Amino acid sequence: MKEKILVHICCAPDLLYFLKRLKEDNPDKEIIGFFYDPNIHPKEEYDLRLIETKRICKLLGIDLIEGEYDVENWLEAVKGLEEEPERGKRCQVCFDLRLKRSFEKAKELNCKYVTTTLLMSPKKDINQLKFSGENLESEYDIKFIAPDYRKGGGTQEMFRLAKDYEIYMQDYCGCIYGMINQGKDMVVYTSRIKGRKPGSREEFLFIKRIKFLAESRELTTKEIPFPFLGWILLSGSLYVNDEPVESVIEPYSMSIKGIVRGKVERKIGNVLHLNRGFVKIKLKEKVVEDIPVTFNGLINPTFVVHSSLERKLMEGKIKATLQSRFEEMKSIVLIIGSENAEYLIGVPADTTSTGEGVKLEEVDDLIKLYHEDIYKGRLAVVVVGAEINGKFGSKVFESITGRKIDGTIKSLVNG
Ligand code: SF4
Predict the structure, then answer these.
(1) I need a labelling partner for 384 at 20 to 30 A (CA). Which of 162, 196, 331, 411 fits?
(2) Given this model, what pLDDT does residue 91 score?
(3) pLDDT of residue 185
(4) Which CATH architecture has domain 201-226+331-413?
């Protein structure tokens, strides 16, 4: 029977080069992957790293076991170390915890060796990892192996492979504290509460899941990443006579400097105009924002309020705040099949502000139904990110390939 090595896996970019080298160095051993990373925040990021890990393990023919996402356990273990820098005490505890669970799993599976793809990560301290791993050896009677594949251009090769295989590259280590310390993902409130916002992790995950499904069915895929400018609502509120009023803010509203205090000066149609700050209040039967299909410039700070509040607003003292900004974001166009296929079907990856959009199962059904056409180059599915407002994804696809998308998934389903 072959000796077994259990490889703790942290993410797909580190995994691909590490496993290639590990396989070359250990041709006579069986390699088993173990994804155990309860440190990763948020869950969507965890799912994103996991789906990419599944894809790469499949590619390399490695069995993969998914560990528990016991995030509470991880948070408890690093309590009191929240402020520690990377490579500090919190990271040591984080390695100890993940490697301990990996040794337990290795024991269950009768593995002789344990290692971790964390050794490949340029930001990790190899000595910290060795310290964690070697400390566990005697307890489990399992050897920790720590090859340094970063040396001799390994790191550069890892990045090259990750690019070639279109692997999702995270830009922070994984945990919420590292994220905060690196200034990533400031807590922002966007106008879209539900669904897959354009450029969000949820949208990325949706696209990567489709990629995984397509590749599992032997279909080729190609990604076109692209940047775009996203409008983000940071905060906003409306008060009448110092009481908060339920409202939503129209996308592309300009920020208000400080606080605007005023009264309604006039009503034109269903819109109340304040005497200060160019603030508008739209009266509607349903408190939902109007998302414009295309961006036509910034608008005055505009709140949407239920029409039953008209009298109160007309007579009361109004106070309004609003902070928004533009931010460069990223999304992807994913082509399943050939971009030269006779017919191109578009699938928007993002959702409307109410969370309505295409479901993963619908895309899966589409791929199954048209598998032969896709395979033979008669049809291609183009999953377009940041599509619903402004059709950014379609525009990117058209400008790069010179082709227009012929129909949408809905038009195909509805005939
Ligand atoms: S920065 Fe990375 S290694 Fe350190 S505690 Fe956070 S997730 Fe773990």
Answers:
(1) 162
(2) 95
(3) 43
(4) 3-Layer(aba) Sandwich (3.40)
Residue nearest to atom 4 of ligand 1 (CA): 91
Q: Name the DSSP class of 299.
A: B
- The CATH number corresponding to 4-181 among 3.40.1390.10, 3.40.50.620, 3.40.1080.10, 2.130.10.10 equals 3.40.50.620
Q: Which atom of ligand 1 is nearest to the CA of 118?
A: 3
- The secondary structure element, H or E, covering residue 16 is helix 12-25
Distance CA 316, CA 294 (A): 35
What pLDDT score does 230 carry? 80
Q: Whose CA is nearest to atom 5 of ligand 1?
A: 91
Which residue is closest in CA terms to ligand 1's atom 3? 91
**In whole angstroms, what is the distance from residue 15 CA to residue 7 CA?**
9
**Max Cα–Cα distance, the chain, nearest Å:** 85
DSSP state of 253: B
Q: Which residues of 89-116 are buried (b: 16+ CB within 10 A; e: fewer)?
A: ebbbbbbbbbbbbbbbbbeeeebbbbbb
Torsions phi, psi for 262 (to 5 deg): -170, -165
Indicate if ligand 1 lies below 6 Å from the C-beta of 173. Answer: yes
Residue recorded with tokens 């001799």: 152
- Average pLDDT value for the chain: 91
Distance 90 CA to ligand 1 centre (A): 7
Determine if ligand 1 sits within 6 Å of the CB of residue 178.
Answer: yes
Query: Domain residues of the chain, as ranges?
Result: 4-181, 201-226+331-413, 230-327
Indicate the pTM of the whole model.
0.76
Q: State the Cα–Cα distance between residues 69 and 103, nearest whole angstrom.
A: 17
Report the SS3 class of residue 101.
helix
Amino acid 413: pLDDT: 53
Residue 9 pairs in a beta bridge with 35
DSSP state of 105: H
19 is written with which tokens? 């496993």
Choose one of 46, 83, 92, 175 to mutate for the ligand 1 pocket test, by most ligand atoms within 8 angstroms of C-beta: 175
Place of tokens 């155990």: 36
